[in-house]
Specification:
Number of strands: 10
Distance between the termini: 98 Å
Mean pLDDT: 76
CATH superfamily of the domain at 225-435: Sec63 N-terminal domain-like domain
CATH architecture of the domain at 225-435: Orthogonal Bundle
Structural class: alpha+beta
Largest sheet: 5 strands, mixed
Oligomer: single chain
Low-confidence stretches: 40-46, 514-522, 524-651, 768-778
Radius of gyration: 46 Å
CATH topology of the domain at 225-435: Sec63 N-terminal domain-like fold
Length: 778
């Protein structure tokens, strides 16, 4: 059999096909990833908080936007150049001529296909006279003429031509290599071989080795494995960590060490600036001689984290850059710390981390997001609020953001009357961003006919449904503003009427004094018996003193500078007046308390009536009815239940539903939750599930083994927010455990063959026993 032959592309036509194919394979996905998309323009003038921290974060984003636009332009230019090059190559390939020609002996001899043998021989003689080498013809042309003549006259040659397309029979197989011939030429062959050696034997192994060496240092969450080991060591050393201790361990992470992280920058100025910041902080523990935690880079990280939580201004921009980097890393490191803690809690160890350590680690998340210590008031999460505002709010027993959101609009505005209307709108906007959850629980055993019956040793599934609402309902606030405008107009008329009456009384008193004669003595005042009637007569009526502050509306919302004023209207809260004497306080305290209780009851009745009317309207199809929409949504969910389950399996849900107001945090943060279950009596940890995809409603499954003892068991379900402080919920869960079911006895039914065989055996045994008895009788 002939040998195969390899031929390189001397002209370069086939090489263009390879280039175009390879170029298209790379260009199509590259276009998908590099397709320029302009950054989304956010209209901050219409919405968003305008506090100083948010404005600085937006300014930094605006500084990045010009570079983003430049990147989009560069990507677009690169893609245009690549596509132009691709189109030129494709056009070049389309213009290439096909050089392959099928062997045709009739064409070589110059005769028709219908010619007979005599005409073929005649034509061959004529061509031989002119193309024979002895007569000055071309040998190659004459050989082609001879082959064509044989292919048409010789039977064997004709058969070869019919089968193989060649009169000489099968030739050697030829493989074309789509590479130019100069690659294997003597002039360039060694250089090409050296390039192959450099790329495939040096650069590629070194690149893969460096990538592998760097990747094995990190876990799946991009945290150094040395840091994970450090967390495990200190958790075993101190199972019951307090918050300061956890921050100290987080600051000892190797992500802040320059030897293991090249992004860390060490400066000579740190030796002068860090001690200045340390003097303003307490409980740093810098004098503790503990391995890793006493190193300079660890003390620096701890100092910057404490300064961030204390909201201290740093002396230089370099420290601000370092602090932003460390705070960004702190959330990832806290997640890793929590993961190691949960692993150690599942292991049978003598020094297992405690529940307090778990809860303290969960408190670190909102602390880092809001830049607050647990001892600080969570009202500092709201913009534009200072210590003087907190003192006023505390006087009226408003200690949390939830308390502030529950107040009536007029009460809330009167308590925050030291801030401007724009600042007050920022407070309202942030309150509407904050969450309020409703939690529903259901215990079941999946895979059983009776799902609601829990038995010993079964796998229990606790279905937790989280429904999110805004902390402050803006629609309800609009209604309160409209009611306040009406009440304000009525009160203004009442004030004008009372003022006119007072003016008339003053005029009458003045006229009486003018009628007194000059020689008449001034009437003596009666002696004071109790002192109170005269004081009360001198004072204005309580209705005039305690006039309510009109509720600010969108049109009449101005900067009201009022502090420590008494308010006794049903929609206001009255503080204690420290300027009154003891007698006034003792006499008026009862009436004031009664007024406050009555006003509180009236408010509760008003809110309950409003809620009942809304419910009735929804029930009977009133203007506030939304049951039809809810019913349609429920039907859609039931119809598409199976499809959505498939989509959840194939596609991951987004985790950026609700943006968090965090002016001190350097990056963007979205609202996440942690749900964990504890035994109520022993506070034993059961399970924990993170929830990062809560939009409006989310159902979580907490699976755990049922207790080994029957009876009623009480659990406590905790839901903690990782973005806002003191936005935690707890729900009691009761579960009744029944004894384990006995497995049903399996009955095996005999087949017909087995039944016949058994009858034969029984009959043979009966005959054998009868025969033995007869023999004994003989």
């Amino acid at each position: 059999m002939p040998r195969a032959q390899f031929e390189y592309d001397e002209i370069g036509n086939t090489f263009y096909y390879v280039i175009v194919s390879f170029f298209a394979v790379l260009l199509l996905p590259l276009t998908h990833f590099l397709w320029p998309s302009l950054p989304k323009r956010i209209e901050y003038l219409k919405r968003g908080c305008r506090c100083e921290g948010d404005l600085q974060k937006r300014y930094k984003k605006e500084q990045i936007k010009p570079w983003e636009k430049a990147k989009c332009v560069i990507k677009g230019i690169i893609l245009i150049i690549l596509w132009i090059l691709f189109l030129l190559l494709a056009y070049k390939v389309s213009q290439l001529e096909q050089q392959y020609e099928e062997y045709d002996p009739y064409k070589i001899l110059g005769i028709d296909i219908d010619s007979d043998v005599t005409e073929i021989k005649k034509k061959y003689r004529e061509l031989s006279k002119t193309h024979h080498p002895d007569k000055g013809g071309d040998p190659v042309t004459f050989d082609a003429i001879v082959k064509a003549y044989k292919a048409l006259t010789d039977e064997e040659s004709r058969e070869n031509w019919r089968l193989y397309g060649n009169p000489d029979g099968p030739k050697a197989t030829t493989f074309g290599i789509a590479l130019p011939k100069w690659i294997v030429s003597e002039q360039y062959g060694n250089w090409v071989l050296a390039l192959y050696t450099l790329v495939f034997m040096i650069v590629l192994p070194v690149g893969v080795g460096m990538w592998w060496y760097n990747s094995i240092k990190y876990s799946a969450d991009k945290v150094l494995l040395e840091t994970s080991r450090l967390y495990g060591h200190f958790l075993q050393k101190t199972p019951n960590m307090q918050i300061n201790r956890i921050i100290m361990v987080l600051a000892g992470s190797f992500e802040f060490c320059k030897k293991l992280n090249t992004e860390i920058v060490e400066r000579e100025s740190d030796d002068k600036e860090i001690p200045i910041v340390m003097r303003e902080l307490k409980n740093l523990g810098e004098k503790r001689k503990e391995q890793i935690l006493s190193l300079p880079w660890s003390i620096k990280a701890r100092t910057l984290l404490h300064a961030y939580l204390t909201r201290i201004t740093l002396p230089s921009e370099h420290l601000m850059t370092d602090q932003n980097y460390m705070v960004n890393k702190s959330l990832i490191l806290t997640e890793e710390f929590l993961r190691i803690l949960l692993q150690l809690m599942q292991w049978p160890m003598q020094r297992t981390p405690t529940i307090d350590c778990l809860e303290n680690s969960l408190r670190i998340f909102p602390m880092m997001v809001q830049a607050l210590w647990p001892r600080n008031s969570n009202l500092l999460q709201l913009p534009h609020l200072a210590e003087r505002n907190l003192a006023i709010l505390k006087r009226y027993r408003v200690n949390t953001c939830q308390d502030l959101a529950k107040l009536n609009e007029s009460k809330r505005r009167s308590l925050l009357n030291t801030i401007t209307s724009d600042q007050y709108e920022d407070v309202i906007y942030v309150l509407s961003m904050m969450p309020r959850l409703e939690i529903e629980t259901k215990v079941e055993v999946q895979g059983e006919d009776d799902k609601e019956t829990v038995t010993i040793g079964s796998v229990v599934t606790l279905k937790v449904t989280l429904t999110r609402f805004p902390l402050l309902d803006l629609e309800k606030r609009k209604e309160e503003i409209a009611e306040g405008i009406k009440k304000g107009a009525a009160l203004q008329l009442q004030q004008e009427w009372e003022k006119s009456i007072d003016d008339n009384r003053d005029e009458e008193d003045g006229q009486k004094q003018n009628k007194r004669k000059v020689w008449e003595k001034q009437p003596k005042k009666k002696p004071k018996k109790g002192g109170k009637p005269t004081q009360k007569s001198k004072k204005a009526p309580p209705q005039k003193q305690n006039m309510p502050i009109n509720e600010p509306s969108e049109e009449t919302n101005t900067n009201v500078e009022k502090t420590d004023k008494e308010i006794t209207d049903n929609n206001q809260i009255k503080p204690i007046d420290k300027k009154q004497n003891n007698s006034d306080q003792s006499d008026d305290s009862g009436s004031e308390s009664d007024d406050e209780t009555v006003s509180g009851k009236n408010e509760e009745n008003e809110t309950s009536d409003r809620e009942s009317t809304e419910q009735q309207g929804g029930k009977y199809g009133g203007p506030s009815s939304s049951d039809d929409d809810d019913w349609n949504e429920m039907n859609d969910e039931l119809d598409d239940d199976f499809v959505t389950k498939k989509e959840v399996l194939l596609e991951s849900e987004p985790t950026n539903y609700h943006e968090v107001h965090c002016p001190y945090y350097p990056g963007d943060k979205y609202e996440w939750w942690y749900v964990y279950l504890l035994e109520r009596k022993t506070r034993k940890f059961v399970t924990l599930v993170p929830c990062k995809t809560l939009d409006k409603e989310k159902t979580l499954d907490l699976r755990f083994a049922a207790p080994s003892q029957k009876g009623n068991h009480l659990y406590t379900l905790h839901v903690r927010c990782d973005s806002y402080m003191d936005f935690d919920y707890s729900v009691d869960v009761k579960m009744e455990v029944h004894p384990a079911r006995e497995p049903p006895q399996v009955k095996y039914h005999d087949t017909e063959d087995e039944a016949d065989l058994q009858e034969k055996l029984d009959s043979s045994e009966g005959e054998y026993t009868e025969g033995s008895d007869s023999e004994q009788e003989k």
